[in-house]
UniProtKB/TrEMBL annotation:
One of its GO terms (cellular component) is plasma membrane. Keywords: ATP-binding, Membrane, Nucleotide-binding, Transmembrane, Transmembrane helix, Transport. It holds the Pfam family ABC_tran. GO terms for molecular function: ABC-type transporter activity; ATP binding; ATP hydrolysis activity. The gene is Dgri\GH14862. This is GH14862. It is found in: Membrane. It comes from Drosophila grimshawi (Hawaiian fruit fly).
Amino acid sequence: MDQTRSLLSKQSKDVEFQDVFYTVDQRANFFRVTGQRQILRGVSGSFRNGQLSAIMGPSGAGKSSLLNAISGFRTTGVKGNFKVQRDNACYITQDDRHQTLLTVEELMNLSYDLKLKQRHKKEELLTKILKNLNLDHRRNVTAEQLSGGERKRLSIALELVDNPNIFFLDEPTSGLDEVTAAQCIRLLREMAHEGRTIVCTIHQPSATIYNYFDSIYVLAKGLCVYQGNPLATIPFLRLAQLDCPRHYSPSDYIIEVIDAEDGHLVPLLSELTDNGKLTYRANQPALEDTQLVAQQAITTLFVEQPKRQCLSAFFAGTAASTDGTLMGAAGALLEQMKFFTQHLHHRERREISGLQQFLVLMRVMLLRTMRARLALVIQLFHHTLCGLFFGMIFFQLGNQGGRMFDHLKFCIGAVLMIVYTQVMVPILSYPADVKLVKKETFNRWYTLTPYYLALTISRLPLQVLLNFTFMAMTYWMSGLPQQLWRFCIFVAVGLMISLVAEGMGLAIGATFSITNGSVVGPMLIAPLMGLAVYGFDFASQISGGMNLLMKFSYVRVGVVALILTVFGFQREELDCDEIYCHFGDPRVLLRFLDIEKVSILHQFGLLAMLMIFFRVIMYISLRKRCYT
Ligand SMILES: Nc1ncnc2c1ncn2[C@@H]1O[C@H](COP(=O)(O)OP(=O)(O)OP(=O)(O)O)[C@@H](O)[C@H]1O
């Protein structure tokens, strides 16, 4: 009985997949889909607990696609049956993205604070992990300053904090030299032998690294062409009359074979593995008396009889389980039930509340803002300089009744400066963060809502500081009335416009890559700017439809709000150096622009609605990016 239980619990950490397809749309351009391309073509297979498994294959074979499909990192376009405890798995991306400007120790603390509740064992656990991964001496170094191998180890250390059973790693050795790559694979092997299921993709490992793996899964053109232990590779290839030369590494040979002559051997090899439903084992690599054993790879999903009856001689154990014992349908069913119960259990088991996540993320985001000194100084310098330029251009013109056009230019210019700056910064910086958020939410560091709230609120202090700097300089230098309340509204309008523009930038940054976003951003701002200046000289004749459209241009709404702030609120007559100043009375200008009866609160309301609109779009985009 105990033996059965231990077998079942071990198997629940196994990963199995059956008939997996991954299809993507082929597009002529953004709007036109011309067809579909199948990246994975009905592959099956299994990765066992306690083993280090590699998904291998030539470039473009579909290795990352398979890893993403199994782990659930990508779900769009994926079809098939999976048995994997995703709530107990983590995914380590190829590029080892981490929160910038935080030290190794701070990152470990962040991971702990977001994942675990127990406080008293924190230091002990973190030290143990860092020591095991040989990172203890790098505690006070930021992630960007680490070497490639150290960064990879840090990625693993961060996930080890809550000790998941299953690790998926995309190309863990990419960018590492041979020695470091071998160290990394040895480390993963040790971790697997401690009782974890570790699956990684690897392009073409050296003979040494190849032999470190317990199990190899070779993909070519979206098909499985080999699955089994490294020792069985050469005997397996002999089944297809392929003799690996003595001096050749089996990993090099199998890749060469599947790449040769446009991959004409791929269908044959794929048939020999029943496209991943069979796995091969051998006790010795190439000797004549090698015992090659083929087994059913899938034991807990729907078990079919193998299609290739001609290979029946090899099936030493049909539906054999991990350690070769037979496992009947009842066992498989029990296993399925156990898996689902655990699945439910894990979902409920989140230890850290949303509020705690929010507080931890807020602290980290504010810390990162403070640490980004150069960016902070550049932004402050930019706002001060722009404020100074505006102040000089419109120096003491704010009370001149004869300079109506200058007043309009002042308001439009100030709004444009805020909009352009606040839209472009997130468009260029946020796409990199989205990838990190996807990884961290996938690995259950936090959920999207606390992250989103922390992001929104943590950016406020900087926004206030930058806008206050710019608006204060322009206000006082241009000689607008010395009224504190008017000045406060002036700054508040600037801040509101800035929050809407930032929301728009974040929405674009969350939806598009930097390249596409930097095209889409200016493309969207241009019509908004057009609407902002449209019809100022014939305001009373603007049609109702156009008026409605203009309400959607927050640039226009911002300009109107700023003009109302500067010239509204019963402002006294302006100075006039000429015989007659038509716009000497500010009410004449407001009437001329047809905004005499517009309330500033109404403009604030519109800006608030547009701010919410863009932030909702951003949230939806982020959800889509993170959860599909
Ligand atoms: N979302 C997608 N849209 C279009 N094509 C895709 C998409 N995802 C993957 N592909 C294509 O599928 C093929 C396999 O991609 P994948 O990244 O899985 O290959 P790989 O074996 O990991 O390659 P490499 O070793 O070079 O990273 C490639 O030709 C890739 O261009």
